[in-house]
Structure formats: C-alpha cells, structure tokens
Automatic annotation (TrEMBL):
The lineage of its organism: Archaea, Methanobacteriati, Methanobacteriota, Stenosarchaea group, Halobacteria. This is TrkA-C domain protein. It comes from the Archaea. It is found in: Membrane. Residues 237-321, 330-415 form the RCK C-terminal domain. It comes from Halorhabdus utahensis (strain DSM 12940 / JCM 11049 / AX-2). GO terms for biological process: potassium ion transport.
Length: 623
C-alpha cells in the first residue's frame, strides 16, 4: 500500500506540473507497478526482503501481475475510446459541422446574444454523440469566424464553447472518454467485489440528469457566466492589431550597394543570429512567400520582416537596407487568399509533436513553409526570440503562409487552425452515411445486447468501408496520447483496490464525517473529485476516486452506484483551470485568457453543479 501511495504521489506531481507529457507519466505508472513484484521477488532471493510485494494481484492468484498491469490496453474503455475517435473523424471529414456553422453565422449576424446562444446550443448536443474534445476542435474555427464577422470578442464565446461541450459530454455514455472509463471501472469493481448494484453504464443511463445539468449550465452561461467571462481580445480588429504587431512588422528595400546582393535569403538573413523572420519577398509586381531560403537577393528587392526596432537598426547598418517610409504591414498585405496569401491562428493540439519543442528544434519554418509572426500563451503575447520558447498545448501561433501550406497545417492533427479554411476534400456526399453510422452505433449499444466497444469498432470499420474515411486517416484520427493515458492509469486503480489503499482512503473520509448524512458525503465526493480533476487529468482522477467512492459507499451502507456517478460527473466537468480539461486548453490561447478567468467564471458554475448533481443523483438513483 505504501508503494502504491508513493507511485500515486509521484504521478500527481507529474500530472499537475506536466514535467513530462501525461501519457508518458501514465506509461511510467504502469511500468512502476509491473516491476514491483519481480524486483521484490529478487530481493527476497538475495535476502534483502522477507517476502515479495504484491500490488496488482493477491498472492497465489491465477491471474499474473503482467496480465493485470497490461489490462488497460485490452480494456473495453480503451478500445471504445479508440473507436470513438475514428467515428468522430468520419463525421468531421464530411464537413457537416462547417455547413452548420455557415447557417448559424447567417442567423446570428452581429447579435452577441444570438452568437452565444448558438455556440453553446450547438456544441452541447453534438458533444453527446461525438467525443466532446473532437467537437470543440471542429467548432473552434467556426466560433472564431462567427466572432470576427459579428464584431464580437472571441473571448466571450470560446470559454462558453469549452464549458458547454462538457455539459454535452454528460448526456450519453460516449460523450466523453471519462464516462466510458468510469463505466468499465464500475463493471470491474462490481465483479471483483461482488456488488450487484455496480454495472456498466447503458448508453442513456444518465441522460435525464445530463439534460438537467445542460439546461442549468446553459442558463448560467447566458446570464451570470456572460458577465464573468471577460472580453480579453478586442472585437473587430485584424490579427496584426490583435497581436500588437505594429512595432514588429516592417518593410525594407535592398540598396544597390548592399553586401547581401547576390546572396541567398537563407544565408543572408535566416541563417544569421539576428532575431528576424522574412515574411514576404516583393520583387517588382511579384510577391513570394516561403520557401524563400534559396532565393537570390537582388538590388531593389523589398522584404517584409518580423523583427524588433533594435535588430532592424543593426540589419540596416550591416546588410545595407533602407526602411520604406510610411508603410504599415497589416492584414491587407498579409491576408490575400485570392492571391494565395493567408494569415491565420494555429493552436498546438494535445498530443502534438511540438509540445516540449521549440520552433527552431521542430524546424517549423522549413517543415511547413510558413512564418510564425507571434505566439500567444493565454493573455501573454511573445514576439521576440520565439524560436527559443518551448511550446505547450494550447499555445496559439500567428502564422502567415501560402494556401497550400495552410491546408497542410489544417489537415495535420498536431494543429487546430482557428479560422475556417475552405477545404475541397470534404466528402459532403457522405454526410447521411456518416451520421447514419453514428446513429447505428448508438442504437445498437442502447437497444441490443451488443457491447458498446463492439458497436463502436463496427462503426469505425463502417466509416472506412463506406469511404467516409480512408484507411490511413483512420490511424491519424486516433489521439494516441489519450489511448496510452487510459492504458497506463487503469492498472493504478487495480493496485489501489488490491492493496487496500482505496478502503483506507474511504475509511478516512467516513471517519472525518461520521455524523454527516450520506447525501452530504456524496456531495463531498463530487467536490473532492472536481478539485482533483482541475489539477490532474480527468481520466486519472476517475481511476483514483471511483474505488475510493465505492469503498466509502459500502462503509456508509449507501448505494455505491450513486457514488460512482458522482465521481463520473465531477470528473467530466472541470471548469476552474485551463489544465483541468483538454477543451479548456484548446481555447486558452485563441481566447487570450488568463488563469484567473477560469477561476472567476468556473468556480460559481462548479458550485452550482455540485448541488445539482448531488440532488439529481439522490433523486434518480437514491442513496
């Protein structure tokens, strides 16, 4: 038990600090648990220990520690989540959400109330049937465009988008990976502990409570929340103004006597120690974008540069440039889609290879033939020496590039392009097929004995066989960091139960509140889980808290299924920090938010949900 608690403590620190990616932490947990028994057995043979240490199975059990430790990879939850990523991608590739976005934009106009109502009213129900993380990734460009065209601050819409997706995730079993994992844990504990009340969730097990929570949440966002969510980004400004680029974008002309005439751009500018990026090369009537490294510089060439004033002065002295007077480089020069020029925001997605890298180490400019003009992390904008900044999930890059380069970024799951990009490869003819497959998966899981994992895998296969997805796209659709996170943390719940750690924690909770009625303890379970989820991964908090909740319910003589539901709902609704839920990170950069914005807008909502969830569970499932 001591060893398991030590592993949990180390895991909590790593999850909270993200010193390494959460999926790497999860695999580390799994390996640590797997080596305890064989290492302790060797120490017994050497006379160091009196007996071996068992954390994943009871001594003498027919099930091996390796089988238990690797069971996360074969878990129904892991397989179901994997299949749901593929189903969501099949829907996304049809472009149906983008079509919906265009219709919404025509309806809302410049009315902020309509924009907010449409944003939260669309994402919530959609999130009940495709993974809510995927729903936000799909809808984020639509919402930012809605704000731009309606002259509304995107900050007023993006945080509600994230929150509303969490409401929708509570509608069905497949709304979020947390629900699927909790269902699998509930069924396993029911079998292992012989508790008949504990079972896997049905498709619409808690839909009635989810509808109530969604309604309460939407009312909050349209009233109190609307006042608490700040307008961090001013509306109706172009991107260069939004990022305060006036002092960092300029145009220079190459003098006849410049020493760089005849040199390649990469050697003369991009290969130097100067903090400068060449955004465009203008030669007579032609405008050239990346790749520019091999272009030979000629006298009279005009360069649009991203640099600071001090560096610019040095460049003019050393390289023989003259500043073009009365020239402001704005969106007008950088954003001309009809000429193949695009200026967009690109969000670093969870699981992106860029996380932990710098723009220089990732070779971003050369890899994608684009220029990064600025980097926004929450409310802070970085414009100097961006190539040295280690990137995080949710960082937003202001990128300028040619149309085909932006299309490549848009098609890459490492990024979310935060503006709508016209994509000719949408398979609109497959819209009825993709929606029909998702409906069939839901129907099979809800109305027949077919397990949700089997139905979801069949649906994923159907997406490929019907042409909604290409085979290669199926693998690209899966967020493998989430899969490894699930596979890694599931054994931790097993170890917590096997060693008695869950029972010990539950006894502590019951001992602290011996005179409190079960409904108050149920509410405390929600609060503890919600606070934990706002610090670490939602899936990790479910794995840790469900065994504890079950043991606490048994000690109180209460309904353990109600306690499982309390933990499940709390882990699916983390409103108070940008790191509490992936969707919060998605909007962190594009919304320009500060950490305290989540606390101010999310804490009252978290408190309201604690009361509504607790009373709803007590009403519908009893104590």
């Amino acid at each position: 038990m001591v060893i398991v608690f030590a592993i949990i403590l180390a895991a909590l620190v790593l999850f909270a600090t993200e010193a390494v990616p959460v999926d790497v932490t999860a695999i580390g947990i799994m390996i640590a648990l797997l080596v305890v028994e064989p290492v302790s057995t060797m120490l017994v043979e050497w006379g160091v220990l009196e007996s071996a240490v068992y954390v994943l199975r009871a001594p003498g059990s027919e099930v091996t520690a390796v089988e238990r430790g690797l069971s996360g990879f074969a878990s129904v939850a892991t397989i179901t989540v994997l299949a749901m990523f593929i189903l969501s991608a099949g829907v996304r590739r049809t472009g149906v959400i983008q079509i919906l976005g265009r219709k919404v934009g025509a309806f809302t106009g410049e009315d902020e109330t309509r924009q907010l109502g449409a944003t939260v009213g669309i994402v919530s129900p959609i999130s009940g049937f495709i993974n809510n993380t995927a729903a936000v990734a799909i809808l984020l460009p639509m919402v930012t465009d809605l704000a731009e065209k309606g002259k509304t601050s995107p900050s007023k819409l993006l945080l509600p988008l994230s929150y509303a997706s969490m409401f929708g995730g509570t509608l069905t079993l497949i709304g979020t990976s947390t629900n699927i994992l909790a269902s699998d844990l509930s069924a396993r504990l029911g079998r292992d502990l012989g508790i008949p009340e504990l079972h896997a969730f049905s498709m619409f097990e808690f839909t009635h409570l989810g509808v109530i929570m969604m309604a309460v949440g939407l009312v909050y966002l349209m009233t109190i929340g609307r006042q608490l969510v700040p307008a961090r980004i001013k509306p109706a400004e172009d991107l260069t103004s939004e990022y305060d680029m006036a002092e960092y974008l300029t145009e220079v002309v190459v003098r006849d006597d410049s020493p760089v005439v005849g040199q390649r751009v990469g050697e003369a500018l991009e290969g130097t120690d100067f903090d400068v990026d060449v955004v465009q090369l203008i030669r007579e009537d032609a405008v050239f974008l990346e790749p520019l490294g091999q272009k030979v510089i000629q006298a009279g060439d005009v360069f649009a540069l991203r640099t600071d004033r001090d560096t610019l002065v040095e460049l003019m002295d050393v390289d023989g440039f003259d500043l073009l007077g009365d020239v402001a480089v704005t969106d007008t020069e950088l954003e001309a889609p009809e000429e193949g020029h695009n200026l967009v925001e690109v969000v670093v997605a969870p699981g992106s290879f860029l996380v932990g890298e710098t723009l220089a180490s990732a070779n971003f400019r050369q890899r994608y033939d684009t220029t990064v003009l600025a980097l926004r992390r929450g409310g802070a904008v970085i414009r100097d020496r961006m190539d040295r900044t280690r990137l995080r999930v949710g960082d937003t890059l202001l990128v300028q590039g040619a149309t085909d380069s932006i299309d490549r970024l848009n098609n890459n799951r490492n990024f979310i392009v935060a503006q709508e990009v016209d994509r000719p490869d949408y398979r609109e003819s497959k819209i009825p097929v993709a929606i029909g497959i998702v409906a069939a998966v839901v129907g099979l899981a809800a109305l027949t004995p077919i397990n949700i994992a089997v139905a979801a895998l069949a649906g994923a296969l159907g997406m490929v066989l019907t042409g909604c997805l290409k085979p290669a796209e199926m693998y690209d659709a899966v967020e493998w960091d989430v899969i490894f996170l699930l596979a890694g943390v599931i054994p931790l719940g097993i170890a917590l139960e096997v060693t008695g750690g869950a029972a010990l924690l539950a006894d502590g909770i019951v001992a602290v509140a011996p005179s409190l009625p079960p409904i108050v303890v149920l509410g405390l379970m929600y609060v503890v889980t919600a606070l934990l989820t706002n610090i670490i991964s939602n899936n990790a908090s479910v794995v840790l808290m469900i065994p504890v909740a079950v043991e606490a319910a048994v000690a109180l003589g209460a309904n353990p299924f109600s306690f499982v539901l309390s933990v499940t709902f709390a882990a699916s609704t983390a409103f108070m920090t940008p790191i509490g839920y992936q969707t919060n990170l998605f909007v962190y950069g594009p919304g320009g938010y500060e950490f305290m914005d989540y606390v101010k807008a999310g804490a009252p909502l978290q408190a309201i949900f604690a009361v509504v969830t607790t009373l709803g569970i007590a009403l519908f499932w009893g104590l």
